[in-house]
Amino acid sequence: MLMRRFFPGLVPPDPRPERALWFVFRGRELLVRENSALDPLGQPEELGLAMLRWQYLGRLGGQHCFSAEVAAGHAAPPGMEFRDLRALFGRLDETLHALAGRAVQIVEWDRTHQFCGACGEATQPRSTERSRVCPRCGLACFPRLAPAVIVAVERGDEILLARSPHFPAGFYSVPAGFVEPGESLEETVAREIYEETGIDVKDVQYFSSQPWPFPHSLMLGFTARYAGGEIRIDPSEIEDAAFFRYDSMPKFFRGRISISGWLIEQFLQKHGRG
Ligand SMILES: [Zn+2]
């Protein structure tokens, strides 16, 4: 599939184009065709969609893109269905899935920032940046983004993995945690690994990043090396942690779906097990 470049925008063409890519959400479910495809639609109102709010997103190649929200329980038009965004991983075109992740965050932010958090006045959208501003007290609200680090800690030919009680039986992942106000990313890496597993790390290196719209994270992947300490888990966060050799790995989440899988796969590739 041809990579199409996305150009974010704030001001929609007036009038709205006859056909456009519409990312219509019912909660966190996206409106797609029954075969999970998403292609340009005519005006949503003509399809019987009662939109609560809609937003202009920008252009993908030559297509204008919009996001919108309908009420809980709203029926899908004939031949279409609402599907959970996670269930569409690998089914929906990758560029469109990424854009849907962007869209659902804008929809959610717009819904939850209709009124000023300081004085309660109705907010207004700005046309110069993605924000809503209070006309009475001037408070501006921007889309929320929660940065989180996710870290592959290596000790020789072993990698540090942990499992959360929410994981399917037997599955492990590399540890992760949210950045706190005032922290550098390197400090977050050291604190999270120490808090969750009791391990000290060194040589923290940036690896890659991934937007994760569940609900509004930006995952920042790092690699690090073991510097000392014995495993001592924080039972409020995880139920087990251990160093695993490349040839005796537990089950983990593979593939393109998450950066945790990429981090583990780069470790295995280094040892000829990719
Ligand atoms: Zn205000």
Question: Please, could you describe this protein's structure?
Answer:
The protein is globular and about 60 Å long. A six-stranded mixed sheet has the order 1-4-5-2-3-6, with helices on one face. Strands 10, 11, 13, 14, 15 and 16 form a six-stranded mixed sheet that branches. Strands 7-8-9 form a three-stranded antiparallel sheet, with no helix packed on it. The mean pLDDT is 94. By secondary structure, it is of the alpha+beta class. 16% of the residues lie in helices and 35% in strands. The two termini are 25 Å apart. It has two domains: 6-112, Nucleoside Triphosphate Pyrophosphohydrolase, CATH 3.90.79.20; 146-270, Nucleoside Triphosphate Pyrophosphohydrolase (Alpha-Beta Complex), CATH 3.90.79. The relative contact order is 0.12. Residues 116, 118-119, 121, 134, 136-137, 139 line the site of zinc ion.
Short key terms for the protein model shown above:
274 residues, alpha+beta, Nucleoside Triphosphate Pyrophosphohydrolase, six-stranded mixed β-sheet, binds zinc ion
Spatial gap, N to C terminus: 25 Å
Please give the count of helices.
Answer: 3
Which molecules other than protein and nucleic acid are bound?
Answer: zinc ion
| Unreliable stretches covering 5 or more consecutive residues | none
* Count of strand segments: 17
CATH architecture label name of the largest domain: Alpha-Beta Complex
What structural category do the secondary elements indicate? alpha+beta
Say which CATH homologous superfamily of the largest domain is assigned. Nucleoside Triphosphate Pyrophosphohydrolase
Order of helices and strands: EEEEEEHEEEEEEEHEEEEH
Task: Specify the helix fraction band.
Answer: 10-25%
User: Under the CATH scheme, which class of the largest domain?
Assistant: Alpha Beta
Shape: globular
Largest sheet: 6 strands, mixed
Instruction: Determine Rg (CA atoms, Å).
Output: 22 Å
In terms of DSSP E residues, the strand content is 35-45%
Question: Largest beta sheet: what is the strand line-up?
Answer: 1-4-5-2-3-6
Whole-number count of domains: 2
Give the assembly state of these chains: single chain
